Amino acid sequence: MSNSLSHVHRLVPASGETARPPLLLLHGTGGDEADLLPLGDMVAPGAALLSPRGQVLENGMPRFFRRLAEGVFDEADVVARAGDLAAFVAEARAAYDLPAPVALGFSNGANIAGALLWLHPETLAGAVLLRAMMPLGTPPAADLRGKPVLILSGAADPIVPAENAERLASALRAAGANVDHRILPGGHGLGQADLTLARDWLAAL
Which homologous superfamily does the CATH classification assign to the domain defined by 9-203? Predict the structure, then answer.
């Protein structure tokens, strides 16, 4: 199952009679296709979980796109890798008979999810962006009217400046997305508040 498409991945089929959209789980730097499966199960019990591994290696650690330094992204690679990921999602939807997923991304995974929203908006039904930054300096015009997006930022995050996270939320709103941006106590790591807010937001979709 995990190697038959363009990205190494894991699929957990939906269970029960859930009508939840599937989750596209996008790990942070150094994660892999198993990394966010427990999180996905906690915040969307019963939903199908599609979890690809990033195809870029940084010092042996998987990522979804290259960066030039901490917080400085190779934007040409962001664009190329977002296209590859969108193609993978289309392959997986056909192979596994899935509707459009909601992305659940952490850090690097949240950033590639943001890039998907702008560059390939048809790929996602919505997104939960955990500790996300602007993936592109000047995002292209996109029609995100009504697209639900939850952004959860850490007030003391040493990696994502507060101004950057707010700029991300504002830019998505300007493109028409229905954005809920929450700033939580804590840093770049996730806490119980993240899980509770993500679970409640996903349940309300």
Answer: Alpha/Beta hydrolase fold, catalytic domain (3.40.50.1820)
**pLDDT reported for residue 19:** 76
pTM above 0.85, yes or no: yes
Please say whether the beta carbons of 141 and 174 come within 8 A.
no
Catalytic residue check, 7: no
Active site residue 9: no
Low-confidence spans in the chain with pLDDT less than 50: 1
Q: Cβ(87)–Cβ(117) under 8 Å? A: no
Instruction: Specify the pLDDT at position 30.
Output: 96
pLDDT value at position 70? 82
Select which of 107, 153, 181, 194 is catalytic. Answer: 107
Q: Are 6 and 94 in contact (CB under 8 A)?
A: no
Catalytic residue list contains 120: no
Domain ranges of the chain: 9-203
Helix axes 108-119, 162-174, angle to 10 degrees: 20
Pick the catalytic residue from 9, 27, 157, 181: 157
- What is the model's pLDDT at position 3? 61
